[in-house]
């Protein structure tokens, strides 16, 4: 018996039931039923054959998802930010320059991270309701000669999608690598890593992939791999892509232990990828485009204003909507949650207090969901008018 008495009393942790909501913010999204089931698959030891077979399935699924033939593709333990951290810290050393094409909060986060690594982070900004054109970027590449350009494909804080065609070539002409955040676009919006000359990309599992957060796909091109092999700096141990590539057997003969990954999350990601492979990417992209176009049309028919003026800049997975004057965003979201069981989000970063952010993606990308959200939004306008105006 230990002689010392415990001084911290036993806490009251009771059973807790949580209401299941239709998650229609910019993420997380609801899970595919098959993914919920996958989460209960057996826990595997990190050095058994089944574990390596799952990793191989995930890597093959990710090559399809990113549309790349690169060897250096794997998933990081952690949410989207871990992917961001991995890409930045592995590719760019202290005092090197990273150019950030800034239009939303994720670019601001990248700038924050880069600064912590001693990277010379410079930015080019545009109004948050717009996207970049090649000329705007070229001027800055010329001026800064950066090691890499960071840009966000789908921006969930603004509801915009950045056209990436031609950007890889442009960056390479100026000796820069192209880093892309696809956290909220991957699976829901066309993305072609190899064709577009993207050198490093990260994504997440909890948006259009309809899985749980906590495991984040990343991929690096040959050009990026060369830079990593030449680098003089050390990235954080946990995110060191050279070590992770060994754990993930990226080159065919290195099954080693680096850290204990979460088998439930690996099973889940594998299952999300299987769902996407069954649907095929072109079909799934088309589904997101069609459903969101229908959603936007119905919103406009019912007097709502979309935040992003140009239709081609609007993101197919997350739509930003301005509420008519006199309504309180918080009150509006709470009404819809309490009366319709649907969770919408308010603005974030540049859109805070200026718009709603509504995600229709992955398992929730259906006409029924889009219609249910519009109907709930109309109902909220009717019922909140008296108290809000
Ligand atoms: N990038 C984008 C575009 C995102 O939408 C998010 C999350 N909403 C992140 C990065 C960060 O991802 P996480 O919250 O999974 O760390």
Produce the secondary structure layout:
Layout: E1 22-23, H1 33-38, H2 49-66, E2 73-77, H3 80-91, E3 97-102, H4 105-116, E4 120-125, H5 134-144, E5 148-152, E6 154-155, E7 160-161, H6 167-173, E8 177-181, E9 200-202, E10 215-220, H7 222-230, H8 241-247, H9 263-279, H10 281-301, E11 305-306, E12 318-322, H11 329-340, E13 342-343, E14 345-346, E15 356-359, H12 367-388
Bound molecules: 4'-deoxy-4'-aminopyridoxal-5'-phosphate (PMP).
4'-deoxy-4'-aminopyridoxal-5'-phosphate (PMP) binds at residues 26-27, 79-81, 106, 152, 155-156, 181, 183-184, 204, 213.
Would you give an account of this structure?
This protein is α/β, with parallel strands linked by helices and 389 residues long. The protein has two domains: 22-28 and 281-383, Alpha-Beta Complex (Aspartate Aminotransferase, domain 1), CATH 3.90.1150.10; 33-278, Aspartate Aminotransferase, domain 2 (3-Layer(aba) Sandwich). The chain is built from twelve helices and 15 strands. The protein has helices at residues 33-38, 49-66, 80-91, 105-116, 134-144, 167-173, 222-230, 241-247, 263-279, 281-301, 329-340, 367-388, and strands at 22-23, 73-77, 97-102, 120-125, 148-152, 154-155, 160-161, 177-181, 200-202, 215-220, 305-306, 318-322, 342-343, 345-346, 356-359. Strands 2-10-9-8-5-3-4 form a seven-stranded mixed β-sheet, sandwiched between helices. Strands 11-12-15-14 form a four-stranded antiparallel β-sheet, with helices on one face. Strand 6 (154-155) and strand 7 form a beta hairpin. The longest helix has 22 residues, at 367-388. The protein is globular. The relative contact order is 0.17. The model has no long low-confidence stretch (mean pLDDT 96). The structure holds 4'-deoxy-4'-aminopyridoxal-5'-phosphate. 4'-deoxy-4'-aminopyridoxal-5'-phosphate is lined by residues 26-27, 79-81, 106, 152, 155-156, 181, 183-184, 204, 213.
